[in-house]
Batch of 2 targets.
Target 1
Amino acid sequence: METPLREPTFLILTALAGEPLHGYGLIAEVDRLSGGRVSLRPGTLYGALDRLVDAGLVRVDHEEIVEGRLRRYYQLTEPGGEVLATETERMRRNVDAATARLRAIKAAPRLSGGVA
Amino acid sequence: METPLREPTFLILTALAGEPLHGYGLIAEVDRLSGGRVSLRPGTLYGALDRLVDAGLVRVDHEEIVEGRLRRYYQLTEPGGEVLATETERMRRNVDAATARLRAIKAAPRLSGGVA
DNA sequence: AGCCAATATATCGGCTGCGAAGGTATGACG
DNA sequence: CGTCATACCTTCGCAGCCGATATATTGGCT
């Protein structure tokens, strides 16, 4: 697993931090928690899930058949929760650093397009 | 330019939001603002700078020779500042979503490794 | 004088993760 | 009986990062 986590992977872990979900449910949940801004594609989702399971951050919780269709539920593991917490902290620091500098820019713009 | 920005690219923009910097100065600044956690490699830095200049998010401010060595200073453009702001907002939302769910986990763990 | 470290730039190849596209199967609905 | 929605999975190309490597100059150490 590469770290820093990319956005799709990060959101998958975040979604699973709520409750175990199956593939399609995960897509829906990520859609919801991102306010519709991120729609996972199957290729992204299953690739990411395979990697996450390999790395032990997620595991298959159980499978069930609903209306003839298999649902494979994935669950966040404890290491998965730790990685999510660590990555969240990293991002928080980056966000804070950027926010501080952006505030300074607004106060006294120094960009190419600044007021002449 | 791919969006979401990857961490090195994001930090380069953040560093340049403070003041124009040259390559090596940028490496030092990113080192500092990341608390030593991120040390840019030349390959990462110059690749990213090329892409950022191509995309118009950063531009060459000026060049100067200090002690016989060329320093090429890069400056954040206005579009660059906007992208940085947008990306920061995106990350803030993701951080908030993850934080909320992580808090819930701590209160009532539901992970594989939870208390038996 | 001779050498190594630090400053400063740049390039190349491999790896990884994402995304677009496409594929299979089942049940529901008209 | 065809189409849509659900649900799984695979393959391929691309973009960005990183390690390694290269080149040039200044300065310090011996």
Target 2
Amino acid sequence: MFSKSCEYGIRATIFIATHCCKEGKVGLKEIAKEIDSPIAFTAKILQVLVKNNIVKSSKGVGGGFMILKDELKSIKLVNIVNAIDGDSVFLRCGLGLSNCSEEHPCPVHEKFKFVKKDLIYMLENTSLEELSLGIKKGQTFLKY
Amino acid sequence: MFSKSCEYGIRATIFIATHCCKEGKVGLKEIAKEIDSPIAFTAKILQVLVKNNIVKSSKGVGGGFMILKDELKSIKLVNIVNAIDGDSVFLRCGLGLSNCSEEHPCPVHEKFKFVKKDLIYMLENTSLEELSLGIKKGQTFLKY
DNA sequence: TTAATAAAAGACAATAATGTCCTTTATTAA
DNA sequence: TTAATAAAGGACATTATTGTCTTTTATTAA
């Protein structure tokens, strides 16, 4: 469904969100440890998230990554996926046709439409806030 | 969503299905041309479909690929996807956790459950017969 | 039996995704 | 101002996916 980069990216973002505000910044090492991801690769992905203004970062002593508290509600899964994998997941034709459309549909166009709609709805309506809440409550997990 | 192999595989299977029975076998060259796919790569994918008993093949003069008419109804999209990409599309955790489950769910487990269910339902209930019918009627397309 | 045909099979090539390592830049505290 | 810290950036390595090419095997028709 998503690329590995995107999976790590989502997990990293959720972890950073759980540390939001009270504990301040989180370092790369801790993030990679807590989401069980390759540290250098995770760094690359975080750079993308920072460039897309989803995560804030600061260098130097006491630096690290954070997400503004008042953005937890407004940041949706779709924003993270879009930043890392682009919009091809939603827009791409299920059978890889380059010009698949209502006027020139592939054989599964109509069938996929509904699945895609569900996926997009879910991604657009799932906020970082609710995802991080599950982690904080110990109901959901970011590794293994 | 699916790998390129799987996209070509589905398109090839549908095309072969449209030639089912009356016109007999279809050759590799024609298949690749009609679904606009790299010919040698398509050959490899067809081998997988043949091994999985989705497509029948025969060598030599007048040989080619075909699908038995009485199997058009029973072959579902899920069979093709499974043969080429395996079942990871449906079973894999959305965030890549190796042991994601109801007891140990990732943060999007519950959210993905419904999307996946929709996808699986669609794949399990879409037959080659109905997909090839759209092509025969000129309502759907296999390339561009 | 031989020649032509077409898929099967295996080896190889190109590209993209994933992952690592090292250097640079910015920040903080001493 | 210097040393320590931590992210940013660039170059490189590994692996998986996609794609090509050549040889082999099976089938048919002459």
